[in-house]
Design brief:
- The protein is of the alpha/beta class and about 300 residues long.
- It has two domains: about 25-70, no CATH class; about 80-300, Alpha/Beta hydrolase fold, catalytic domain (Rossmann fold, 3-Layer(aba) Sandwich), CATH 3.40.50.1820.
- The chain contains 13 helices and twelve strands.
- It has helices at about 10-15, 15-20, 25-30, 40, 55-70, 120-130, 160-165, 170-180, 195-205, 230-235, 250-260, 280, 285-300, and strands at about 80-85, 90-100, 105-110, 135-140, 150, 150-155, 190-195, 215, 220, 225, 240-245, 265-270.
- Strands 1-2-4-3-7-8-11-12 form an eight-stranded mixed sheet, sandwiched between helices.
- Strand 5 (about 150) and strand 6 form a beta hairpin.
Length: about 300
């Protein structure tokens, strides 16, 4: 039976047996907000004054807007939190920590390439976080949010070798930040890219309690920060070298470092010519393979 679209509404209202057969459009119209904008749909001269006033709606929706802008809490294991660290020589350092819920987790310090910043580690850090590693990515001095030293704005472009080696203090600050966030202090590995890889190796030589390092596109010499003599001084601790076959300098440097290493030293070489953290964008498996290599050393809970 069709709907009585032309039946007088007064008759429908008095007849209970028919009232529930009113069309969906009719019901919508009866229950619609008394807002003038509905007139163009139903043809009724509903007063505009019945519309909710913006001043009454705003207090109701403002908390929802604030929550949406803030995003979820950084305690959630899938998120991150921005920090400002202080190096031992007083440099303010931008950093991002990727927390995990498990107590006393292993940690990873992530050190970026020359001219880059900590955000290039985002995809790697998020994947590592899901695997049970708490990560911190730090902006080295002269980069990103770490450009003020002694009240002066500085740039890595003017750095001397001495300036670059001073960035070892930035790695130390990042490592301490992880420990303060609950990471097992004996279970913090270091992962660096390009000159960040060279810095990671130099830092680990001086810190015998670093259990493992991952060097992504290292070079024998970047800006005076050398690795050829340092790899032997690193001792028998495990080291993973990551490179692309088309990145000739990094690839040849990795081969030299592997020969000079006195402990476990492995190479993961990928097709293409991507350099540093760009390898993780170019290869769909590189991040997982690095984390798989680290797993028996750091023993994450996941």
């Amino acid at each position: 039976m069709g709907f009585p679209m032309k039946t007088d509404r007064e008759t429908l209202a008095s007849d209970t047996s028919i009232r529930f057969r009113v069309s969906g459009v009719e019901r919508l119209r009866r229950n619609a907000p008394r807002c003038g904008s509905w007139r163009r749909f139903f043809g009724n001269p509903i007063p505009e004054t019945r519309c909710p006033k913006p001043g009454r709606i705003l207090p109701l929706i403002l908390p929802l807007i604030i929550l949406a802008c803030r995003g979820p809490s950084p305690q959630d294991g899938s998120l991150h939190e921005d920090l400002v660290l202080k190096s031992s020589d007083g440099v303010s350092l931008g950093a991002t920590v990727y927390p995990v819920k498990e107590p006393n987790p292993p940690g990873l310090v992530l050190v970026h390439m020359l001219g880059a910043d900590r955000r290039t580690w985002g995809p790697f850090a998020e994947r590592a976080q899901r695997s049970g590693y708490m990560c911190v990515a730090v902006d080295l001095r002269g980069h990103g949010d770490s450009r003020i030293i002694g009240g002066q704005q500085v740039s890595y472009k003017n750095f001397t070798t001495e300036d670059w080696l001073a960035a070892l203090k930035d790695i130390e600050a990042a490592r301490q930040a992880l420990i303060e966030h609950g990471v097992n202090p004996k279970n913090v590995a270091l992962v660096g890219a390009s000159i960040g890889a060279n810095l990671v190796l130099n830092y680990a030589v001086d810190q015998n309690d670093v259990p493992a390092i991952v060097l992504v596109s290292p070079g024998l010499d970047y800006k005076g920060v050398k690795t050829d003599t340092q790899i032997a001084a690193y001792g028998k601790r495990p080291c993973l070298l990551v490179t692309s076959e088309g990145d000739s300098y990094a690839a040849s440097s990795c081969a030299t470092l592997k020969k000079a290493a006195s402990g476990l030293c492995e190479i993961r070489e990928y097709t293409g010519s991507a350099h540093g953290t760009n390898i993780f964008d170019a290869s769909q498996t590189a991040i997982d393979e690095v984390l798989l290599w680290l797993k028996p050393i750091l023993n994450p809970s996941k």
